[in-house]
Amino acid sequence: MDTLPRAAESQIETPRLTQRIKAHGTGLGFDLVGVSPVRDPMHSESFAEWLRRGYHGEMGYMPRTAEKRMHPGEFLPWARSIVSVAVNYGTPHSRAAEAGGIRGWISRYAWGDDYHDVMQAKLERLLEHVRREAGREIQGRIFVDSGPVMDREAGARAGIGWYGKNTNLLSMTIGSFFFLGELFLSLDLEYDQPIRDRCGQCRLCLDACPTNAFVGPYVLDARKCISYLTIELKGSIPRDLRPLMGTHIFGCDICQDVCPYNTTVKSTKEQALHPRQGLHAPELLPLLSLTEAAFKARFAGSPILRAKRRGFLRNVCVALGNLRRREAVPALVAALETDPDALVRGHAAWALGRIGTHEAGEALREARAKETDPAVLEEIRLAMLDPEEGS
Hints:
The longest helix has 22 residues, at 6-27. The strands form 4 sheets. A 4-stranded antiparallel sheet has the order 1-2-7-4, with helices on both faces. It has a two-stranded parallel sheet with strand order 3-10. The chain has a two-stranded antiparallel ribbon with strand order 5-6. The chain has 18 helices and 10 strands. The model is unreliable at 1-12 (pLDDT under 50). It is α+β, with helices and mostly antiparallel strands. Among the domains are: 6-92 and 112-185, no CATH class; 285-391, Leucine-rich Repeat Variant (Alpha Horseshoe). The N and C termini lie far apart (84 Å). The radius of gyration is 24 Å and the shape is elongated.
């Protein structure tokens, strides 16, 4: 009996296998699944220029891994295809819930369980399925917002979405509130086509940024981005940017909230990503008293651990300073006097200066006589100036 040549068999099997992989990915709970070849990124030169300009700030891992990011075929020489997946993390809660109390804002993506764990588990199951379907040994490697991978580049090439002017990927079906993950495979598959840019003349995202972090369309200076300032930056927040940060204590959704493709936020199907108690517009004053152990216990299994206690409480102090509520003075005074971390004490001093009540001023004077850390003493000195000058 005649048989098809092996190459012809492969051509027939590849589309079928690709569709089965996509179908299984959808069955696992991925909202979008696309496939692209392993190639150098389309935007390598733009990325290199972004690094040259220093827009990555203190994210030193970016330049250290630049070559691997720009040449994935050299980083993973066995890889032939990338299966890109997306999980919607949106929930319909809005900023209106901040009304009442002394509340802050946590980015939507951090309201639920750590997305790394959620996505990793699903991708491991997808890899197992690929190996069963292929019927032979297949190499695979999983990435979820980790490792030297340009995930948005892979997602765009796989048709998951297009680059919005705010540098996020945008999807016609689920907007931009979604996580990305990648499965690299030593397997040839049928590849998807990129989606054309649909942003048109719209620049709502660019104009809405309170810190003017966008150098222009598609170019973000991370050093001014509130998400960078509240998560990636480990030291003191630049004084000129603090008043512009509002009540953001972990991440920022502003440029996504104003996007027309997010007009109606679609609720995630993934239960683990639904908001945990107290993480949507949380009360700020209780957070300021968290010990190291209490911080780790409260945010166990949450992306918020990335900021660490010192960074998170630093952010809480900035939010309280921007709210300028006199009710926050006792908690800020306690932080200034007793917090073990100088970073927190310094930002508590700034917040007290912003609030500017008599009690706040007295606390600053008393702290100046006791404090020994030079950076905190400088924060106290500036906070004791006119509030607007000291900001």
